[in-house]
Amino acid sequence: MKRIIYFSSGIVFLCSCVLALEEKVELSKMDKFRPGDLWLDTSGKPIQAHGGGIILRDDAYYWYGEDRTPGQKTSVSCYSSKDLYNWKFEGTAFRQDDLAAEIKANTFIERPKVIYNAKTKKYVLWMHIEQQGYHFARAGIATSDKPMGPFEFVSYLRPIKYEFDFPAPDPDRQKEFGGTYRDMNLFVDDDGIAYVIYASEHNATLYMVRLNDEYTAPLKPIVDDATWSRVLVGKYREAPAPFKYKDKYYLISSGCTGWTPNAADISMSDNIFGSWQSKGNPCIDDGAELTFRTQSTCVLPVAGKTGCYIYMGDSWNPRRLSDSRYIWLPFKFDDNGNIEIKWLDEWDLSYFD
Ligand code: GAL
């Protein structure tokens, strides 16, 4: 009898601790970025939005990324925020099971990105979809009427078939299906024209491809150097993070060393199709040579602050991908059009004042 009483009072004690903890998490609003710290959503759970990207719609930000929760199939998560510090989980925007029937069992999702199409009023999701061995290497496309989804699958493809010097044998079967599609990003220009940029030719060369009016496929007919181009040819750059400043295009990218960090590069071009010129590593000071142990995923322009951006990187933990951390660092263009990204333990948006 006594034992039962002890046991139940133990449960009551435990429950009140959990409640107290939840209350505390709920109450402690974030007002700073702490790169590399565990980042909790507004319900107190670690944010699962790896290899992700952010869009601003009306007065809300939406952050999409890979949900790597252990024991689950990969999916695309969606979080919303008004201030960039505090993120509310809006649910799973797209699940592996939403892929085409013939591929969903063995195909996983990486680096999802979403853009909004003002003409069709749809949110358009592009992602790298992959299978064991990384030879599938295709784009998956889905659309939704609402930012948080659910997104409906449209198609999967390799956007461009180009006769480069194919390796032989080629496990990626590029002659047959087109150039590989791996690390990727989307970019909407000021004129509303959208582009997808992705690591192709087995990661040797990035492809910049103009999308159709719906943003759901490459613009047809496909014309070399007019609707698409090869970028940083043979340079083995991936994790592309494009942005624009004063009519020039910029691209932060990483080298190709899998989950292991390496040095970033920033390239610049007057025209989105090139020619792109490397300006070297934008990172400075301690940790610069390994991009502060991160790999680029996105560059977010700071709303209302011309020339101000946030570098978003993933600090991958390959043994436990779900515990990969987010490293956001601020940067501004100086009067000579240069940028420097440096490590900060803690910062907030007043950095841009
Ligand atoms: C990286 C890539 C990641 C993931 C990883 C798998 O190079 O950026 O998104 O694909 O390889 O090893």
Could you characterize what this model shows?
The chain has 353 residues and is mainly β. It has one domain: Glycosyl hydrolase domain, family 43 (Tachylectin-2, Chain A), CATH 2.115.10. 8% of the residues lie in helices and 37% in strands. It is built from two helices and 19 strands. It has helices at 2-27, 174-177, and strands at 50-57, 60-67, 75-81, 88-95, 108-117, 122-130, 138-144, 152-157, 184-188, 194-200, 205-210, 228-231, 237-245, 248-255, 265-269, 277-278, 295-301, 308-315, 325-332. A four-stranded antiparallel beta sheet has the order 1-2-3-4, with no helix packed on it. Strands 5-6-7-8 form a four-stranded antiparallel beta sheet, with no helix packed on it. The longest helix is centred in the first third of the chain and has 26 residues, at 2-27. Residues 1-25 have low confidence and may be disordered. The structure holds beta-D-galactopyranose (GAL). Beta-D-galactopyranose is lined by residues 51, 110-111, 183, 238-239, 256, 258-259, 295.
Helix and strand topology:
Blueprint: H1 2-27, E1 50-57, E2 60-67, E3 75-81, E4 88-95, E5 108-117, E6 122-130, E7 138-144, E8 152-157, H2 174-177, E9 184-188, E10 194-200, E11 205-210, E12 228-231, E13 237-245, E14 248-255, E15 265-269, E16 277-278, E17 295-301, E18 308-315, E19 325-332
The structure holds beta-D-galactopyranose.
